[in-house]
């Protein structure tokens, strides 16, 4: 027997149902905000990530890279932004001068130690808003993340935000950190020593080991080294968030794990006992140099990545069972079709099944291809969370049972599958039933 690769997962029907439900909800929100979907390959040239996120743990420790049969160094994409920017530049998507809002979704790969909420293959949804640097655009993207988490009903979360400054600010801060950590060099972890030697002291701040050591208590604060322009930009953004009534916490220690960010970085943190240490469900910020560094024009962009697996894991745990989550996510208008007494009923209904699917596109039909014992029909219908049951009685006549309305749950018109008018009668009867339900559905949506 084979087992799955460490750090990967298999999803059952309940889990994929709930995942699809939430993804569709999120995609609807993205469409409302004007974001349009693009795709990039799972594999990229390794140099793309080495150049865009050089010096990060992602490049040094976590990339899945290999030499292909053409002797090319290839990497399974570990994050989405570098791939997006490569596609944006290569395909000249910048030729359109309109505000450009993009989103993408798919699997990413990182060689990390697997734990709850962290996998070596994981699904991530990313958004990118390309254009001139503008705090209103940052606020728009942050508001989008805030809305998504509210709409998927993540009960408790907080927004943490910080300014990492412009290039001038970061250069001054790196110098201050270099001077400060010099006195504690022997106490640094081996990883941090390498970062110190490379002049990348900013990464020491989020080192899992060193961040807990006493000398970190008095480390210089980035806010003290911001240029006047960066300070004003950050204050402008916070004022906009206040006006939009989006709650946030300014976190001076938040720097994010990728070096291409400037000005604004942010994270949405799940405040939940089930989240464990992997509690950041959305992380992002602004980047103003990456597009130009990868051969494109001098354009800035702001975006975020949403960890789908991590988010859904928390949502699952906050309910009694995944089955209940799946039931909630399933469409209410599920029609279970099973016959117990009449093979002709099964045959004739199967003949019109495609017509029914086309006629009632908002319904899902679950059809049993063999006769089912009458005692098991209702139980099976409930297991698939059906709204309606179409079955036959002991005389072999077909009828419809409404499984939600217990006060009047049998539509008493019985249809004989042996008549020449069967298809016409069945369609007419179902139209009467489902049209009424469709009108109710439209009323609920309005």
Automatic annotation (TrEMBL):
Major subcellular location class: cytoplasm
InterPro entries reported in the protein's UniProt record: aa-tRNA-synth_II, aa-tRNA-synth_II/BPL/LPL, His-tRNA-ligase, HisRS-like_core, HisRS/HisZ
KW Iron (keyword) present: no
Record-listed L-histidine binding positions: 79-81, 110, 124, 128, 256, 260-261
Organism domain of life: Bacteria
Boundaries of every Aminoacyl-transfer RNA synthetases class-II family profile domain copy: 26-338
Reactions performed catalytically: tRNA(His) + L-histidine + ATP = L-histidyl-tRNA(His) + AMP + diphosphate + H(+)
Top-level class of the enzyme under EC nomenclature: ligase
Subcellular location field: Cytoplasm
Enzyme Commission code: 6.1.1.21
Biological process according to GO: histidyl-tRNA aminoacylation
Keyword field: Aminoacyl-tRNA synthetase, ATP-binding, Cytoplasm, Ligase, Nucleotide-binding, Protein biosynthesis
Cellular component annotations (GO), alphabetically ordered: cytoplasm
Subunit field text: Homodimer.
NCBIfam families, per the entry: hisS (TIGR00442)
The protein, known as: Histidine--tRNA ligase
Gene source species: Mycoplasmopsis gallinacea
């Amino acid at each position: 027997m084979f087992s799955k690769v460490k750090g990967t997962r298999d999803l059952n029907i309940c889990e994929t149902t709930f995942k699809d439900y939430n993804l569709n909800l999120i995609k609807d929100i993205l469409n409302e905000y004007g974001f349009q979907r693009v795709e990039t390959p799972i594999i990229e040239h390794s140099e793309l990530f080495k150049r865009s996120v050089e010096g990060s743990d992602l490049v040094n420790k976590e990339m899945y890279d290999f030499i292909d049969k053409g002797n090319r160094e290839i990497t399974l994409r570990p994050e989405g932004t570098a791939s997006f920017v490569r596609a944006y530049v290569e395909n000249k998507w910048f030729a359109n001068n309109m505000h450009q809002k993009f989103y993408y979704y798919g699997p990413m790969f990182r060689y990390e130690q697997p734990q709850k909420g962290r996998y070596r293959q994981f699904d991530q949804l990313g958004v990118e808003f390309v254009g001139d640097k503008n705090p209103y655009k940052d606020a728009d993207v942050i508001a989008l993340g805030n809305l998504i988490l509210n709409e998927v009903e993540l009960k408790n979360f907080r927004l943490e935000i910080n300014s990492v400054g412009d290039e001038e600010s970061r250069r001054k801060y790196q110098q201050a950190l270099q001077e400060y950590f010099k006195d504690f060099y022997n106490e640094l972890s081996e990883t941090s020593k390498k970062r110190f030697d490379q002049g990348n002291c900013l990464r020491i701040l989020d080192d899992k080991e060193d961040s807990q050591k006493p000398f970190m208590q008095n480390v210089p604060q980035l806010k003290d080294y911001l240029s006047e322009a960066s300070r004003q930009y950050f204050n402008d953004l916070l004022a906009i968030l206040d006006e939009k009534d989006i709650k946030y916490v300014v976190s001076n220690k938040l720097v994010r794990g990728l070096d291409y960010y400037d000005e604004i970085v942010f994270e949405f943190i799940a405040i939940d006992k089930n989240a464990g240490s992997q509690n950041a469900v959305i992380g992002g910020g602004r980047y103003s140099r990456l597009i130009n560094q990868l051969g494109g024009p001098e354009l800035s962009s702001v975006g975020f990545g949403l960890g789908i697996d991590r988010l859904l894991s928390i949502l699952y745990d906050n309910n009694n069972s995944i089955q209940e989550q799946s039931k909630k996510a399933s469409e209410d208008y599920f029609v279970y079709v099973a016959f117990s007494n009449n093979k002709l009923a099964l045959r004739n209904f199967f003949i019109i099944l495609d017509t029914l699917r086309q006629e009632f596109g908002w319904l899902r039909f679950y059809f049993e291809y063999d006769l089912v014992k009458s005692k098991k029909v209702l139980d099976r219908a409930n297991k698939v969370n059906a709204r309606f049951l179409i079955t036959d009685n002991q005389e072999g006549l077909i009828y419809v049972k409404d499984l939600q309305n217990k006060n009047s749950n049998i539509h008493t018109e019985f249809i004989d599958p042996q008549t020449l008018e069967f298809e016409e009668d069945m369609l007419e009867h179902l139209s009467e039933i489902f049209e009424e339900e469709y009108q109710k559905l439209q009323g609920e949506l309005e």
